[in-house]
Amino acid sequence: MSYNKNEKGVVLVSVLIIVAMISLAVSLMWQQQAFNLSSTKNMVHTNQAVNYLYSIETWVKTILKKDEDIAVDHLEEDWATIIPPIEVPNGKIYGKIVDMQARFNINHLIAINKDSTQAYLNPDYKYCLDELNTSLEQDFMGDFILEHINQRRPIERFKHLSQLKQVEGIQWKDYLKIKPYLIASDTIKTVNINTASPEVIACLHSDLSVSSAQDIMGQRPFNSLGEAQSAIHHALGGQTLKQVQDVFNENLISVNSQYFLLTSNAQIASSHIKAKTLFHRNGKLVNVVSRTYEQVLE
């Protein structure tokens, strides 16, 4: 069978088109296989990362349970040690534990009437937030928070600190600045004087400054509420010990804590998972209150 020149040209083009289509199909097939392989690897690495994060949680539970004196918590204990980057197959893990009772509970700021129809600023705590705002060189937030709470139905306190971001009048940069000093909780009642920052300690009384708070911190750790009250008495100067004891009582400060937050990271190959785990310790019993995971894109 013979072909003229034009017919050969048509056949050649047809063959090239077929070859091109086959090549494209093969290329797509390999791309899909490569994608599936990559997805499988990412899934494996993510699962490894999560397992490592669970391991860190187990370690934290052990550390908190083995605390020899749970009546006193301070920053020289094992739990307060930053977990440095630890090399693991294909990556590393690291993290730190934070005492959540080292912070000011923003929910103390809000008082709600018996009918839950009106919220108002608690005068015992309004100063604390104002003082924190002043020390951080930002606008006062109390009035914005009160207006926000009263606009909600039902009227209720914050369930999570992130809700502060929804308050009109509070700028993002100010939220980020004050966030490390605050917590939103219905159960945390006291500030641990052994772990609180000078900014938080200073906000607890109108006559305390950041400088005097640092003097108090220089005498830590306190082994009892009485020791802490004595140090605060010396820092205040003009207050009698009885006046200090009346204000800085067991309803305001403590020398131990029950709530701890673990912030942990696991980086396995290209997978980076960040977790936040809140623990509650009651005696030697340690439970996970909440846990969140975040995929970090790098």
* General form: globular
What is the strand tally?
Answer: 11
Q: Please compute the radius of gyration using only Cα atoms.
A: 29 Å
Our measurement of the CA-to-CA distance between the termini, rounded to an integer number of angstroms, reads 63 Å
User: Which segments are poorly predicted (pLDDT under 50) over 5 or more consecutive residues?
Assistant: 7-13, 15-20, 26-37
Which structural class best describes the helix and strand composition?
alpha+beta
**Sequence of secondary-structure elements:** HEEEEEHHHEEHHHHEEEE
Helical content class: 40-55%
Characterize the main sheet.
5 strands, antiparallel
Can you list the strand order of the major beta sheet? 1-2-9-10-11
Q: If helices are DSSP runs of H or I spanning 4 or more residues, what is the number of helices?
A: 8
Q: What is the typical, i.e. mean, pLDDT?
A: 86
How much strand? 15-25%
In short:
The protein is an alpha+beta fold and 298 residues long.
Descriptive overview:
With 298 residues, the protein is α+β, with helices and mostly antiparallel strands. Helix content is 41%, strand content 21%. It is built from eight helices and eleven strands. It has a five-stranded antiparallel sheet, covered by helices on one side. Strands 3-6 form a two-stranded parallel sheet. The protein has a two-stranded antiparallel sheet with strand order 4-5.
